[in-house]
Amino acid sequence: MMPRQAYAPTPHSYVPNTTLSATINLDEEVKLAETRAERDLQESLAEIFSIIITLDELEKAFLKDAIPEAEYTEICERSLKQYKSLVADETVAKAFVGLEEFKAEWDLEVPRATERIRVGMPFTAVTTSSGAAPTPATSGNTSGTLILEATQDFITFLDALRLGLLAKDQLHPLLTDVIQSVNKVTDRDFENRGKIVQWLITLNQMKATEELSEDQARELELDINSAYQGFKSTLS
């Protein structure tokens, strides 16, 4: 008696799909994206993912004094600039949706990066040295130049408001110049300095072309003018 030949079982429900088979070229490389636009979008989203992770690790390192302040500030400013540039693209923004949605989609737990992106500036730009000795604001030509630059930045920002510039992309860069120039003059806190930071955060949350209301503009002008007076009082 001849032994029975064994065959691999074939599911009875299987029916070959000749239409599908005809459309698949097994020699063709499988691609993640079909078009250049899709590849560019994937790369942009991957860059955003990388920047968020980098910012979170950077904040941790800075809190542990594992990175010099100047290096932290440089990397943070560059990362935030790249992030803002990427999400400003209309196609990327549509796929990205928002930071919270992106974090949920990719299961990201990055509280420090979330706060830094919300603020829109390095930690070093929004805080002052508590209890530190005052920075000598009037010593030498360099300090005099820095004071002049800070004063000009205050005036430029207030003039922009009076000229009716109300959009986020018009005001945020000018107010960033104010806080950066002020920080170069003094590391002391002064009256209404916190208002500058609060408005920077408010503007950072707005869309690029979104505008302040007239009431907001008046309040902003009063707050920054008060901060300017507080800044001048530190120079006395």
TrEMBL record:
Mind telling me which InterPro entries this protein's record contains? ESCRT_assembly_dom (IPR037202), Vps28 (IPR007143), VPS28_C (IPR017899), VPS28_C_sf (IPR037206), VPS28_N (IPR017898), VPS28_N_sf (IPR038358)
Topology in the lipid bilayer is annotated as: Peripheral membrane protein
VPS28 N-terminal domain mapped to chain residues: 19-127
Location(s), subcellular: Late endosome membrane
Which residues belong to any copy of the VPS28 C-terminal domain? 142-236
Care to name a GO molecular-function term for this sequence?
A: protein-containing complex binding
The UniProt keyword set, sorted, is: Endosome, Protein transport, Transport
| Short name of any one Pfam family annotated for the protein | VPS28
Q: Which domain of life is it from?
A: Eukaryota
What GO biological process terms are annotated to this protein in UniProt? Answer: protein transport to vacuole involved in ubiquitin-dependent protein catabolic process via the multivesicular body sorting pathway
Annotated GO CC locations:
ESCRT I complex; late endosome membrane
**KW DNA-binding (keyword) present:** no
* PANTHER family the record matches: VACUOLAR PROTEIN SORTING 28, ISOFORM 2 VPS28 (PTHR12937), VACUOLAR PROTEIN SORTING-ASSOCIATED PROTEIN 28 HOMOLOG (PTHR12937:SF0)
Family statement: Belongs to the VPS28 family.
Functional note? Component of the ESCRT-I complex (endosomal sorting complex required for transport I), a regulator of vesicular trafficking process.
Q: What is this protein called?
A: Vacuolar protein sorting-associated protein 28
Q: What organism does this protein naturally occur in?
A: Lasiosphaeria hispida
